[in-house]
Amino acid sequence: MSDVAGTLPSTRPSFLRLPYLRWGLVAIIQLFLIAIPLADRFDVQRNGQVVPLELVPVDPRDLLRGDYVIINLAINTLSKDLSEGDKIAVGDKIFVGLQAGAGKAVQPVVVSVERDNAGDLAMSGTVRSLTENEIRVDYGIDAFFLPEGEGRIIERLDTSRVLLEIAVTEDGRSLPLTLLVDGKAFQSDAAF
Question: Widest CA span of the chain, in angstroms?
Fold first, then answer.
């Protein structure tokens, strides 16, 4: 019986019998999985429209990543009047239409559950809470990393002097690019 089992051909493909090919295939799969979020970030930076936003920074520290500024965007809290009658609930994905304001920062002009109703420039976000008059939105932009020691500089500045430039794509994805102080680049987070 053992002689018959020893003479049966293997059902595994021949290329998987070589250990270095198996390890190479595993490495390629891992590199592909790592590249997926980087490709999305590159797409937003390359194809997104750059707009400045008002923010209120606070300076904590992360032992593993160094200094970072927690950013509280002025457009995190929106008036319910901007929703134009859309039924919005906590957890909904919404689009906030933006328009250049009188100052340097863009201002929210409409909130909609449909991308097409939000205008040419719109950020996507998730409704975190609702009150009678306000909508709290999370855009996924909540930290900006800085070199060690520079977080305290931003913390001490008057918030009216600080803006955050972001890239916004047509489908509403956004990411932080540059921290501006008095209209000049203080630190860039752009990877590409």
Answer: 88
Residue 43 in tokens: 């797409």
**More confident call, 42 vs 91:** 91
Residue 8 predicted with pLDDT over 60 = no
**pLDDT reported for residue 24:** 84
**Order of strands across the sheet that contains 106-112:** 77-79, 134-138, 122-130, 93-100, 106-112
d(CA 143, CA 151): 11
Full-prediction pTM beyond 0.85? Answer: no
- In SS3 terms, the chain reads as CHHHHHHCCCCCCHHHHCHHHHHHHHHHHHHHHHHHHHHHHHHHHHHCEEEEEEEEEECCEECCCEEEEEEEEHHHEEEHHHHCCCCCCCCCEEEEEEEECCCCCEEEEEEECCHHHHCCCEEEEEEEEECCCEEEEECCCCEEECCCCCHHHHHHCCHHHEEEEEEECCCCCEEEEEEEECCEEEEECCCC
